[in-house]
Amino acid sequence: MSKKISVLGSTGSIGTQALEVCEKHGFDVIAVAAHSSIKLLAEQVRRYKPEYACVFNEDKYAEFKALVSDTDTEVLCGMEGLCRLAALDEADIILNSVVGMVGLLPTLTAIGAGKDVALANKETLVAGGELVMGLAREKGVNIYPVDSEHSAIFQCLQGNKRSQLSKIILTASGGPFYGRTYDELKKVTKADALKHPNWSMGNKITIDSATLMNKGLEFIEAKWLFDLEPEQIEIVVHRQSVVHSAVEYNDFSVIAQLGVPDMKIPIQYALLYPDRLECPTNRLSLTDYGTLTFGRPDYETFKCLSAAIKAVKLGGAYPCLVNSANEEAVGMFLNDKISFIEIGEIVSSVTDKFDRFGINCYDDVMRADKMAREYVRNLVLKG
Description:
The protein is of the alpha/beta class. It is built from 17 helices and 11 strands. It has helices at 13-25, 38-48, 61-67, 78-86, 104-112, 122-139, 148-157, 182-185, 190-193, 203-211, 213-225, 264-272, 286-289, 303-314, 318-334, 340-349, 362-382, and strands at residues 4-8, 28-34, 52-55, 74-77, 93-96, 116-119, 143-145, 165-172, 233-237, 243-249, 254-258. The strands form 2 sheets. Strands 4-3-2-1-5-6-7 form a 7-stranded parallel beta sheet, sandwiched between helices. The N and C termini lie far apart (57 Å).
């Protein structure tokens, strides 16, 4: 099997694992892109010999270009370069694993060019779900989910009638603070929040997992990916991260997808669909785990989760506003400007601060993004 892959966000956790999958199966990596990790990006250029490489941070362009000047790889930069890699004629599929709102325009560009997308960028559907899915339908493009939970649902839907779906069950690890009280969360440190019990991820998504915002974002994504009403999505805390999610049908049969907590499995499924080949990971042994547990989320303590669900029920720009406010607040927490508990307090205040307006184009998304970020910065500045 030979596929040509363009990997956006190639130096992140998803990107590096995707390259491992590509190497395992002999895929042709024709493009790599990173924000500013130019040393690792240069190593990837030398190892995979892509035709193109893009560094999003334009200040790093000259330095990166010098690092790979002895190669045949064409070097690009900025959003223009990222979008060019998202629409390469020779690419069979685009993997979008960039972090943040940066990922929306490349996704829209890829779909506009008629390219299938393996999607790991949450903000694409959270902020612009209606735009993205509408354009995908218009262009006849497939969106293959890379998140383990959405991949699980996608797999559980195979071979069944979509009209017979009753609900989906999104599983959540609960993060490092599951079971903590609101008062206990006031004392947690950045180091505490960056220790996820099951997954190895980037800083932003790890903090989102600790606040349960990650599950809130996945709730919004699932609504768009699978054309669901919010009432058809149930969240269940599953500490072992073995059951990646499940689907309930009208006869009340529940089909779940299980596996070890390793992102290479959903990455590979997205890139190879509908084929399955041996994956560079460990096999699941249920007897080694022995016990699998399930519980309810604490919506009152983990305010980010409640805020995300409220936002998608309200509709319009609210999911984008909540997402951008969270992105800004997490950045401030990682830079020691606010406490962990303040992330949830800030994000949960957003839906009450803005009047509802719709998302009809990319500019509407950018407007909402700017409004939310300015709101958070001003709120923190005022103290």
